[in-house]
Amino acid sequence: MEALFEGITITDFHDDAYRNIVSLRTSADLFDDLSDSPAAWQSAMTLEAASKPHNAHPPVIHRPFEEAACNEAIDYPFTHWLTSRYSDGSFGVWYGTDTLETSIHETVYHWRQGLLQDAGWEDYEGVAIERKVYRVRCDAALLNFRPRLDAFPALLDPDDYSFTHRVGARLHHDGHPGLVSHSARCAGDVYAIFNARVLSKPRQYCYLTYRMSAGVVSIERQPGDVLLDISNNGHSS
User: Fold this and answer.
1) What does the radius of gyration of the chain's CA atoms come to, in whole angstroms?
2) N or C: which end of the chain has fewer CB within 10 A?
């Protein structure tokens, strides 16, 4: 692995990255199935709030909107560690992309493999998920892995993350802010960020709906208006 870092270049990155996360288009009312009366819903919410421990976090709606957007678009992967391409789950990594389409290809793949297939739902017609896309500013000197991909194809292995886990552990240990590489799912670029301080200014860009039909995932930016289709082999149309 040490050869990967010999002569590696730096990309001085000062631009937006696309962050694509699971999110509802319209917030769900947790109590509307208990009564048809809005007054009863409010009473239930008041009781629920009064019953919470005093040290519980206040609802997002009572927080500044800027803080809520940062929590959702930036902070979450640094406080909820998950196994990913560059982390074995012992630290957090934030992932963004160069374009909306790259973010769609990346997240469609993980939706298929990480949820639908594991749950045995890959053949369910009409199964859908809603998502939100942010644009987030990144200002950092990123290690540029793109010129090294031919010599180190394991960086883009579609399923085996053993090599990239070692790379990520090295960057995390050494304190590097992040890296830029090509996507393993399409022709775009992916940013893996190890330090939340280089991220700022999250702005909501759009909502998306992913819907499975006949083995094809249709992506809707507006309900019923298909932006693109992605087949089982990852090709889009």
Assistant:
1) 20
2) C
